[in-house]
Design brief:
The complex is a heterodimer of chains A (555) and B (417). Chain A is built from 22 helices and ten strands. Chain A is an alpha/beta fold and 555 residues long. In chain A, the strands form two sheets. Chain A has an eight-stranded mixed beta sheet, with helices on both faces. Chain A has a two-stranded antiparallel ribbon with strand order 7-8. In chain A, helix 6 links the parallel strand 4 and strand 5. Chain A is elongated and about 95 Å long. In chain B, 46% of the residues are buried. In chain B, 35% of the residues lie in helices and 17% in strands. Chain B has 14 helices and 13 strands. Chain B folds into three domains: 235 residues, NAD(P)-binding Rossmann-like Domain (Rossmann fold, 3-Layer(aba) Sandwich), CATH 3.40.50; 69 residues, Arc Repressor Mutant, subunit A (Orthogonal Bundle); 85 residues, Ubiquitin-like 2 activating enzyme e1b. Chain:  B, domain 3 (Structural Genomics Hypothetical 15.5 Kd Protein In mrcA-pckA Intergenic Region, Chain A, Roll). Chain B has an eight-stranded mixed beta sheet with strand order 3-2-1-4-5-6-7-8, with helices on both faces. Chain B has a five-stranded mixed beta sheet with strand order 9-13-12-10-11. The termini of chain B are far apart. Classes of the chains: A alpha/beta (555), B alpha/beta (417). Chains A and B meet through helix 1, helix 2, helix 3, helix 15 and helix 21 of A and helix 1, helix 3, helix 9, helix 10 and helix 11 of B.
Chain lengths: 555, 417
């Protein structure tokens, strides 16, 4: 086992690509960028919102995009869509938006089809079949008649977007989405209640004579003020155990007592702030004195049937998850160690020595997991058995307590009007304590819009202002039907009525600012799904530009 | 007929022509549309590209923009009006001409310079000010300027300030009605405190790769190059810092010093992506549209957007701070240990996120505590730095602080702890 810290690879000045994408590589790294560059995004509907989403994906350099749209550019499009100009009027919208979007980044390959979703589903189904299509992600812009929504493929991540007046919604669908790099605030796991022998040995070595005054041959003030706080805590926890029949300070009041015990050991006659390490130790008590527990999110991953029943077709994620589970089961329930340590007051060598104890343990845990992975892959005759990537396993182990697995309800289930889980979710939101101001009403109003459009082939309010009242009555009728279908019997509430008026007011039209905002929200979520980093919404986010707020629902 | 009645503006016109259920009762659509056209607006900052596009496509016809930066290659991943061939040109002029050529019938007037170059008369011409600035200093300046411009007898002197900022997947937008609602200064304490690493850590006991980079830039560069200033944008300089930092890291067995980290530390780089900028700029311009037209109620007064774990927004009313040095009237209390030296007092003030000073000059009613310049005054007052606070000021005494980073004079009541 290599015990020296990994040496910094001699990295020279950045490439021109690294310079251009520097501000985003700091978020998702080369790993995320590679995934982004493999993506081919299909946009159905060159609306203002659709083009804004693509803009925010082309700039960070997705691999390819294809705009699919069957309309000709109208004068009115120029008032909302920045990726059309005066010369575009009368020409195919797919072609013109693809051309102007393509100018944004020469690294991205753009294309277009003058076509629509309905026609492609019936005439060129291979373009939407996950086994044959080149598209890796679908962006579908509303309006789309409900029967078409019910036919969307379930093998490709799909983003269904509404941008109407001041309101926007995004519905995400993805096949099971697993995430290693969730980017939590901190990966630090100190294991203060569960030290391993090497760590305990370091504590003994570095805290010898800690409490002996310098005049009696103990540590000098300088040494005393530079013992890393992690070692202080571990040392005093041992002392505490001696005084308390081997018990650790677990309750709030015990921790408070423990704090004052540490405080009493601080040297008070030293000038200045040289006992900051003790202050850091006291500050860390409440947060860090605990058993190393497995997060509920990671438990969900480890108990997932995909983890329990791995096969030769399982994704690497699930094989590694299974190995981590086996490791944990045979390791007193402790996950592989993350190996991360916070900065703390210490001398350089003292800090590095401590850091190395954590790193070495993390390496050896990851190596043990790798052995199990190798064993499973061989036994299963897994196609990746000769390409096991130690870096991925280390990354996985580092994030073992922060894994995520998201299961998305299909869009067809949501719009079928017969899915119990969907109905329950809507009903719960409508009956929740905050229902009066909830953005669930925005969603319900847009369900009315969806049904109105499906029945009439046009948007409510897309008419002279005098006829809006009739459209309002009609869309309200659709909403009543929808509410009944989910089992809600209290009728259309005040906020919902207002939202319906707002929907009719827009008449199916976009506002550029709302479209642009939708473009930002959707692109963030697409990037999270593509890079498999950070945690995307499951499954609906509503933005209300009237009250300037969002809400998420699993619908 | 307003210009907005032309076919190009069909959708915006429709929304504005129909009174919405959330709008004020006295909403008058024809008046509001005309108002929109005559609303002179001002935008600036790193969100500038998005802001200009959004304003142009929201019916604003007379837009002014200020930006002191030139285009850098690292802007191209998000500032979508710029191409590789534009690198080195002023952002304001390139952005203005791009948007004007794309959207017919609007005027954008660019100014290549600092917002501080312009005086109150200049800012008085606008109805709304939108800022997506990335520096705390510039935001404090525009905020203080707009608060100072408010004349109780002239309602038009109150200019709504819409402020937006982003970091990674997070951002915030807010509406400030100078003197009426919480201002930028009122919320400075929401910024993360800048905990500077003690010099002795850098000098003797580095532990983190960033400590090695700071050692190279703060201590080693001036030692070797004396008066020559470190230029963070000069690749040669950055390379030198990187090599020194790497050497030091190896000496102390510290891993993780890379060129990218070196750049990040010395330039204080904040990650930025197109999508977050789009969200925040659009939110700001949505508020501008609502303020200008009354088509819907505008934000009261703060929205925080967090996109790294699911999507979460916190929309709330940030309260005015009683002792706000800009929009409040009184000096605020400040706890001081009487045993501190003046230097220690200054060091602690520098760490306070709600103060944010770099090179303060300090006076009380009865004495000059410390002057940065001119040289004679600096020399006269320098001995005070090692004196104890209790020997310089009385409990309850007011200290006035001026600083290049402060657009106003900060007043603190010293309270001895």
């Amino acid at each position: 086992m290599d015990t020296s810290p990994p040496s910094s690879a001699p990295s020279s000045a950045p490439s021109s690509k690294e310079k251009k994408y520097d501000r985003q590589l700091r978020l998702w790294g080369a790993n995320g960028q590679n995934r982004l560059e493999q993506a081919h995004i299909a946009l159905f509907g060159a609306t203002a919102a659709g083009c804004e989403v693509l803009k925010n994906l082309i700039l960070p350099s997705i691999g390819r995009f294809t705009v699919i749209d069957d309309k000709l550019v109208e004068e009115a499009d120029l008032g909302i869509n920045f990726f059309l100009d005066q010369d575009s009027v009368g020409k195919p919208r797919a072609e013109r938006t693809a051309a102007l979007l393509g100018e944004l980044n020469p690294d991205v390959v753009g294309g277009f089809r003058s076509d629509n979703l309905e026609n492609m589903l019936s005439h060129t189904p291979e373009l939407l079949d996950p086994r044959t299509t080149e598209f890796t992600h679908l962006l579908v812009m509303s309006p789309v008649p409900t029967p078409i929504l019910l036919q969307l493929p379930t093998g490709i991540p799909t983003f269904f977007v509404n941008s109407l007046g001041f309101v926007t919604t995004l519905r995400i669908y993805s096949p099971t989405h697993t995430i290693i790099e969730t980017h939590p605030d901190s990966l630090v796991d100190l294991r203060l209640f569960n030290p391993w022998p090497e760590l305990s040995a370091l504590v003994l070595e570095k805290t010898r004579n800690l409490d002996v005054p310098e005049s009696e041959g103990g540590m000098s003030d300088h040494q005393h003020g530079h013992v890393p706080y992690v070692l202080l805590l571990l040392k005093y926890l041992e002392d505490w155990k001696q005084l308390h029949d081997g018990h650790l300070p677990g309750t709030y009041s015990e921790k408070t007592q423990f704090k004052s015990m540490v405080m009493d050991k601080m040297r008070t006659n030293v000038p200045g702030a040289s006992e900051e390490n003790y202050e850091e130790a006291i500050g860390a008590v409440m947060k860090n004195l605990r058993n190393a527990e497995i997060s509920s999110e990671t438990k969900e991953v480890l108990d997932n049937p995909k983890c329990l029943n791995i096969t030769s077709e399982s994704d690497d994620f699930w094989i590694i998850a299974r190995a981590v589970k086996d490791f944990t089961d045979s390791n007193n329930g402790f996950l592989p160690l993350s190996g991360a340590t916070p900065d703390m007051k210490a001398e350089s060598h003292g800090y590095v020595a401590l850091q190395n104890i954590y790193r070495v343990k993390a390496h050896s845990d990851a190596a043990a997991v790798e052995e199990i992975v190798r064993d499973y892959m061989n036994r299963l005759q897994h196609p990746h058995r000769d390409q096991i990537d130690s870096d991925v396993i280390q990354l996985f182990c580092r994030h073992a307590n922060f894994l995520r697995c998201l299961n998305y309800r299909s869009i067809a289930d949501e719009y079928s009007n017969s899915n119990d889980e969907h109905n329950k979710a809507v009903l719960a939101a409508l009956e929740n304590w905050d229902a009066e101001d909830s953005l669930i009403h925005n969603y319900v109003a847009l369900r009315g819009y969806q049904e109105f459009y499906t029945s009439h082939g046009r948007a409510p309010g897309d008419t002279s202002s005098e006829d809006c009242d009739a459209d309002y009555d009609e869309i309200k009728r659709f909403v009543c039907q929808y509410l009944e279908s989910v089992g809600y019997t209290k009728g259309v509430g005040v906020r919902c009525e207002k939202m319906l008026k707002e929907v009719v007011r827009a008449g199916g039209g976009e506002l550029h600012v709302t479209a642009s905002l939708a473009g930002g929200i959707v692109a963030q979520e697409v990037i999270k799904i593509i890079t498999q980093q950070y945690v995307p919404v499951n499954n609906t986010v509503v933005f209300d530009g009237i009250g300037s707020r969002t809400q998420t629902f699993e619908l | 007929m307003a210009i907005i009645d032309t076919p190009q503006w069909k959708y915006l016109n429709r929304i504005l022509s129909r009174k919405g259920p959330f709008a004020d009762d006295d909403y008058d659509n024809e008046m509001q549309k005309t108002f929109l056209e005559h609303t002179k607006v001002f935008g600036a900052g790193g969100l500038g590209c998005e802001i200009l596009k959004n304003l142009a496509l929201s019916g604003f016809k007379d837009i002014h923009v200020i930006d002191m930066d030139t285009i850098d290659v690292s802007n191209l991943n998000r500032q979508f009006l710029f191409r590789a061939s534009d690198v080195g040109k002023p952002k304001a002029t390139v952005a203005a001409s791009f948007v004007m050529s794309r959207v017919k019938g609007i005027t954008i007037t660019p100014y290549y310079g600092a917002i501080q170059d312009k005086d109150q008369d200049y800012y008085m011409q606008f109805k709304i000010i939108i800022c997506g600035l990335d520096s705390v200093e510039a935001r404090r300046w525009i905020n203080a300027t707009l608060v100072d411009m408010v004349d109780i007898n002239r309602p038009e002197s109150l200019k709504p300030l819409i402020d937006g900022g982003t970091e990674g997947f997070k951002g915030q937008s807010r509406v400030i009605l100078p003197t009426l609602s919480s201002c930028y200064e009122c919320s400075l304490d929401m910024l993360t405190p800048q905990t500077a690493v003690p010099i002795c850590t850098l000098a003797t006991i580095p532990r983190q790769p960033a400590h090695c980079v700071e050692w190279a830039s703060i201590l080693e560069w001036p030692r070797i190059f004396k008066d020559k200033k470190l230029d963070n944008d000069d690749p040669g300089h950055v390379q030198w810092i990187y090599e020194q930092a790497l050497k030091r890291a190896q000496e102390f067995n510290i891993s993780g010093v890379t060129y990218s980290l070196t750049q990040g530390v010395i330039k204080n780089i904040i990650p930025a992506i197109a999508s977050t900028n789009a969200i925040i700029a659009a939110s700001c311009c949505n508020e501008a549209l609502k303020i200008a037209t009354g088509a819907n109620p505008f934000l009261n007064n703060y929205m925080m957007y967090t996109g790294d774990e699911s999507v979460y927004t916190h929309t709330f009313e940030h309260e005015k701070k009683d002792g706000c040095p800009v929009c409040g009237d009184l000096a605020s209390d400040y706890m001081v240990n009487p045993e501190w030296t003046l230097q220690e007092f200054i060091d602690r003030l520098k760490e306070k996120p709600e103060v944010q000073i770099k090179k303060p000059t300090m006076v009380t009613e009865r004495r000059k505590l410390y002057y940065q310049g001119p040289p004679q005054l600096n020399e006269q007052t320098r001995p005070n730095l090692v004196k104890k606070m209790k020997d310089l000021v009385d409990n309850g005494e007011e200290i006035a602080i001026t600083d290049p980073g402060l657009p106003f004079s900060l007043r603190l009541n010293v309270i001895f702890s």
